[in-house]
Amino acid sequence: MELILLSIKPGFGDAILDGRKRAELRRLVNGPITPGDTVVLYLSSPRKAIEGFFKAGRVYIGRRSELMRIASGLGDLGLREGDWSYIDEDRDGMMIIVSEPRRCIKPLTLDQLISMIPGFKPPLSYIRLKPNSDVYWLIFRRCIEPYFRSLWR
Fold it and tell me: What pTM did the predictor assign?
């Protein structure tokens, strides 16, 4: 189980965090995301903030036509016709089933990230965060841990 930082447009990120979008499509660029990974959502411009996270459910890998066929048997995933053009037909892509979406109690802005970790840049698509990195622990302590602490009160 890993911590993944994923950049996403605000409209798509909100749809995931509000439960309206139950799957995320990605090109396969940094190896597959695996079931059980925690996927942290960095909402791009104009929001420029980490605003939530979800647990990766089942992850399907394949060409666009194969993923579309699989999706058609999974009910309404909140994917629109235009979303599929993001996945190339001649290369493998991923369809990540969203499980347990959660909003951070307080978003972590890009300015805050840069002030605490000089030189920080959000990924173009997604990256795996290493447990020994400052970014990993900052996101964990400022977003994930407060959410779970709020449940214990």
Answer: 0.94
